[in-house]
Specification:
Helices cover 35% and strands 8% of the residues. The chain is mainly alpha-helical. It has two domains: 1-185, Transcription Regulator spoIIAA (2-Layer Sandwich), CATH 3.30.750; 193-353 and 428-433, no CATH class. It has a three-stranded parallel β-sheet with strand order 9-10-11. α11 links the parallel β10 and β11. α6 runs parallel beside α8 (175-184), α8 packs across α10 and α11 (246-258) packs parallel to α13 (304-314). Mean pLDDT is 85; it is low at 363-396 and 415-433. The structure holds iron/sulfur cluster. Iron/sulfur cluster (SF4) binds at residues 58, 114, 119-120, 123, 125, 128, 134, 136-137.
Length: 433
């Protein structure tokens, strides 16, 4: 490529369960490389007590290259191998009885595969779940449910969380799985990734429609209620993905507002190596169909201005983005969405605020700052900078919140009943990203 050589490895031949067990039985140190010294590494803290149960993904989301790295055929470890790893983890210093994840590239693809190995061998479809779940896919979640139950029953294990991303259009095929997950494995919040609400960008991402999210949400709420738990779904969205128009972002913002979501940090599409969406980004063509000089063009969001606008739609509640949004809405002929009505997106009145600054930029080190050259090392949140407010173990945070609530309850019990006026108002979920 130009004057650079590029070495591209094909996905490896899928490993059998015996081979996976062999690989995972190696005596790993389970600690960061010594070159990190004593640095606190938030990413390590997050996975320190998690277990990888499989490799591969047949989802085929175009912005992700995991299929190119790990293959489309799921490679599973045996229950015995996974449970043995948990037993070994229990001996490590710092283990509190909480397993932070039993997962992989996608939480719920364990032991799920094409019904026919012969068809699977010849199939060249980029996804088994898009545009709908393939009729040849065996969506049986029973082995995964059994694994969760066995892991929960291990002595010394207090809680098993599922932190890997969930393919919820697949999960709704097994209500028993959703019930098991919601009843036992959610730490208050479950992050899922519809990525958008509009068909245009969703088709370019190869993601299911928002109807699947609604179906999953109904099941999530039902089983949470049955379990007597107050739990929330936190949906993630991408701004500026190839195929996204300003109207698509406006409709997404209206959906967010109607559903009471306020994204704290938002993600804008960035072209990463080997992802099909990267090919769209650079060519302006859709590689999911045959590409010719006459073939379908894809709307690409490249200019800094339009990327900022798309992010501002995702953060419709942030006054710093309102001037830009007002201009855009007027240009789009949707000035009717400016005002203080319930159905309107942003107010006409502008409060005094600092200028707009993206969350990513806010966390960056300014050019020329002394920090930039610190010890010749580039500090990131993975090797030294403090975590953002939403990083950290969800279980620990929940335990802290419970302890704080208990302390408040005791204080109230000691000092008389809290009046309705003093009681803390119930809070709507705020989606971190
Ligand atoms: S036939 Fe369907 S389930 Fe089988 S590999 Fe192809 S897409 Fe996947």
């Amino acid at each position: 490529h130009g004057d650079h050589d590029i070495w591209l490895n094909p996905p490896p031949i899928p490993l059998t369960t015996e081979e996976m067990d062999y690989v995972f039985a190696s005596p790993y140190a389970r600690v960061p490389h010594p070159s990190y010294g004593g640095a606190k590494i938030p990413a390590y803290e997050m996975i320190r007590f998690s277990v990888n149960i499989m490799r591969g993904c047949f989802g085929g989301c175009t912005f992700c290259s995991i299929t190119e790295h790990e293959g489309r055929i799921i490679q599973n470890r045996s229950h015995e191998s996974i449970l043995h790893e948990i037993e070994e983890m229990k001996k490590l210093p710092g283990f509190t009885g909480v397993v932070s994840d039993l997962g992989g590239p996608t939480a719920n693809m364990y032991r799920i595969a094409c019904n026919s190995p012969e068809i699977e061998k010849h199939c060249r479809k980029p996804s088994c779940v898009y545009p709908g779940i393939c009729e040849n896919l065996n969506t049986d979640h029973s082995s995964l449910i059994e694994l969760y139950r066995k892991a929960r029953a291990l002595p010394g294990v207090k809680k098993i969380l599922i932190a890997s991303g969930l393919r919820y259009d697949l999960a709704v095929e097994s209500p028993e799985y959703v019930k098991e997950l919601v009843t036992h494995h959610v730490g208050g919040y479950l992050k899922i990734a519809p990525e958008h609400t509009e068909r245009g960008p969703l088709d370019k991402m190869m993601k299911p429609g928002i109807g699947s999210y609604d179906k999953f949400k109904r099941m999530f709420d039902k089983y949470s209620k049955e379990a007597g738990k107050e739990q929330y779904l936190i949906p993630y969205f991408i701004a500026a993905h190839p195929g996204t128009t300003d109207e698509d972002m406006m409709n997404l913002a209206l959906w967010l507002k109607a559903n009471g979501f306020r994204a704290d940090q938002v993600q804008a599409f960035y072209p990463s190596p080997m992802a099909s969406a990267t090919a769209m980004y650079h060519s302006g063509k859709n590689p999911l169909r045959k590409v010719t000089y006459k073939s379908e063009g894809v709307a690409i969001v490249k200019s800094e201005e339009q990327r900022r606008l798309h992010k501002a739609f995702l953060r419709y509640h942030d006054p710093r983005g309102w001037p830009m949004l007002r201009e855009a809405l007027i240009r789009m002929g949707r000035a009717d969405l400016i005002g203080s009505g319930k159905h309107q997106l942003i107010p006409a009145h502008q409060p005094a605020v600092d200028g707009y600054q993206s969350a990513r930029r806010k966390n960056s080190t300014p050019v020329g700052s002394k920090k930039a050259g610190q010890g010749g090392k580039i500090l990131t949140q993975h090797n030294g900078l403090p975590p953002r407010s939403h990083d950290g173990n969800a279980w620990d945070k929940r335990e802290q919140a419970k302890a704080a609530a208990e302390a408040r309850r005791k204080a109230v019990a000691g000092g008389g009943k809290a009046s309705g006026k003093n009681r803390k108002p119930s809070q709507r979920p705020v989606a971190p990203r």
